[in-house]
Amino acid sequence: MSHSADSVLPDSNRLPEFKPPVPMPEDLWGDRWQFASLPAGELWDSFSGRLTPIQSLPQDANPLELGLASDLFIPGVIITGGRKALTIARWIQSVSPQALTYQSSPGAPSGLILQTTDRSRYVLATFEDPEVQRSGETFQQRQITTQGLHFLLIQPDDSGMTHSGVWLLKSSSVA
Question: Does residue 30 sit in helix, strand or coil?
């Protein structure tokens, strides 16, 4: 079989670009959301021992297995979804979440983006509040120190008693 000089073989080490972000379906917006963090030494026990309908806690994402210091804060996002919490969690699971990123551009609202394994992106929230933007910057900076590890938690209320979904995610762009 001969190859012409202009044939190009795909680079198997290069991932395709992410698709342009689209808004999360409006009927799946939670009641509220917030940036959060938990010490690495508490994160695994906080999530793994619970009866949560949807969980993605791969053992190789356990912060202590990754060699992270137990007092290092793992960044995350908590979405309080009210009666829609389980529906939100099911939708997130259906799109195969990979990572959450904070994005900002001068003169435009900042945003929280969900990246999926098929390279899709969904806008979970947009905001212009300077305090929330600082929290977003902290969220993104902490991912650098945690080898990209972060979490997403969906809960019906802020009582801390029940969770609808939890994912340990790992951003490949900061690892």
Answer: coil
What is the domain partition of the chain in residue ranges? 22-170
Judge residue 54's burial from the number of C-beta atoms within 10 Å of its C-beta, 0-12 exposed, 13-18 middle, 19 or more buried.
Answer: middle
Question: pLDDT tens digits, residue range 116-125?
Answer: 999 999 999 9
pTM of the predicted protein model: 0.88
Query: Distances from the Cα of 78 to the Cαs of 31, 97, 124, 149, in angstroms?
Result: 11, 15, 11, 15
> Quick one: 21 exposed, middle or buried, by C-beta within 10 A (0-12, 13-18, 19+)?
middle
pLDDT for 38-60, tens place per residue? 999 999 999 988 889 999 999 98
Other C-beta atoms lying within 10 Å of the C-beta of residue 69: 13
Least Cα distance to 124 among 154, 147, 145 occurs for: 154
Within 10 A of 162 (CB to CB), how many other CB atoms are there? 14
